Amino acid sequence: MFDFDVIVVGAGPAGSVAAKTTASAGLKTILLEKRQEIGTPVRCGEATVTREEIEKFIPISENWINSEILTAKIISPSGKEAHKKKASKIGLIVERKIFDRALAEQAASFGSEIYCRYTVVGLTENGVKVNSFGKEFELTGRYIVAADGIESQVARFAGINNSLKLKELYPCIQYLVKDIEIENGCPEIHVGNQIAPGGYVWVFPKGEKIANIGIGISANKSKDKNAKAYLDEFMGRKFPKGKIIGMILGGVPTSSYTKNLIHKNILFVGDAARQVNPLTGGGIFFALNSGKYAGEAIIEAFTKNDNSLLQNYQKRWDADFGKTFANYSKLRDIFIQTNDKELDFLVEAANQVLKETENETNFNSVIIDTLFKIFSKHPKFLLKAGLSFLKGS
Ligand SMILES: Cc1cc2nc3c(=O)[nH]c(=O)nc-3n(C[C@H](O)[C@H](O)[C@H](O)COP(=O)(O)OP(=O)(O)OC[C@H]3O[C@@H](n4cnc5c(N)ncnc54)[C@H](O)[C@@H]3O)c2cc1C
Q1: In the chain, is it the N or the C terminus that has fewer CB atoms within a 10 Å radius of its CB?
Q2: Is there a domain that residue 334 lies in?
Q3: Does the pTM of the predicted model rise above 0.90?
Q4: What is the C-alpha to C-alpha distance for residues 260 and 275, in angstroms, rounded to an integer?
């Protein structure tokens, strides 16, 4: 007999949705979080998909919506702009502190147990070893969901090497900045090898005169300057009078998702499975989906008493997102090799494409569709990337 049917490690978006899914089907579920409070500290730019897409996971509450994304701008090294001018609701800026807690509360209201300051410190034959306030004990469970984020230790406890190569890990730093002139509803992406080598600076408005301003850079390309130095330079140039009232540090995996999402009775979800957009670094949407898919595969395996059905998580994920991730990875490869002159050209071309197509429904599709259209018009970028699109498609 197990203490629990499902043990979920980590109460981020992926873990909370997994716990809600299995608990709502009547499986005895426990959600373990090492921090004392769910949702803090936030390590996120907080930009995500539309209300409609989020509503599939949790009823919308204005409590955790800071701002609606209506338009967007990409700014090139020399200051050229690709501007989606026509307003339509293409995404949200959420208050992760409240959003993450709401997801965990939802899991609880569907019957999951939740414990904070419960750190999983090892795996046992039948479950996990937990440390809480210095006391160590075992919890047994039939299935384990590893939702423990980018540093996933569960993988290591299971003997899986999940370390990221230098080129696959983007160091990030973000400031919460007040008293700045920005257009609420219009996120900005600034690109350029002197601005953010291999990555970008984001300005994500959380309201009038307040924004998350952050940077992610390729550790491989940045040589002797760190992400903070680049961000400080940007702040000095663009928002010298901005008041920094918060700061976060973190890393984003850009490796595309891990090949094997399931190991024995352990299912890896969210950042722990590297389910992060390799081009933009966005992971909230994928974390929500992976929690749901993994939870649903567990329900099937449990009810039919057949653990091979856990593989349905992998099958669904590959079918629904495999190609998308492959495409994002190829776009990232092209982006990383692009010099500033080419970035200027790309941004100008993007502006043209955006003028012609103003009816996209979400932020990601604005970026991705625009890039695809540019590449099909200007195949030299495909050549530059070693024809990786042609080879892979
Ligand atoms: C600077 C930065 C900016 C970002 N901006 C965006 C953005 O704008 N939009 C977007 O979509 N994505 C963004 N992301 C990515 C996004 O934050 C993640 O993809 C998302 O949080 C993944 O959710 P998750 O549930 O997998 O993991 P997490 O949210 O990391 O949650 C993992 C949880 O597991 C807990 N945990 C870890 N180890 C243990 C343990 N041993 N025992 C118990 N609990 C444990 C942690 O405390 C944590 O609460 C950003 C990331 C960074 C670093």
Answers
A1: N
A2: no
A3: yes
A4: 12
> Range of 380's domain?
339-392
Pocket lined around ligand 1, Cβ cut-off 6 Å? 9-15, 32-35, 43-48, 119-120, 147-149, 153, 172, 174, 214, 248, 250-252, 270-272, 276, 281-284, 287
CA 318 to chain centroid, in Å, comes to 17
Beta carbons of 384 and 334 less than 8 angstroms apart: yes
Domains held by the chain: number:
3
How many residues are recorded in the chain? 393
Ligand 1 centre and the CA of 144: distance in Å? 18
- Alpha-carbon span 44 to 155, nearest angstrom: 23
Q: Which atom of ligand 1 is nearest to the CA of 121?
A: 41
What is the residue-level pLDDT of the chain in tens, covering all 393 positions?
Answer: 899 999 999 999 999 999 999 999 999 999 999 999 999 999 999 999 999 999 999 999 999 999 999 988 999 999 999 887 777 888 999 999 999 999 999 999 999 999 999 999 999 999 999 999 999 999 999 999 999 999 999 999 999 998 888 888 899 999 999 999 999 999 999 999 999 999 999 999 999 999 999 999 998 887 789 999 999 999 999 999 999 999 999 999 998 899 999 999 999 999 999 999 999 999 999 999 999 999 999 999 999 999 999 999 999 999 999 999 998 898 888 888 889 999 998 888 888 877 776 665 666 666 667 776 777 777 666 555 544 444 443
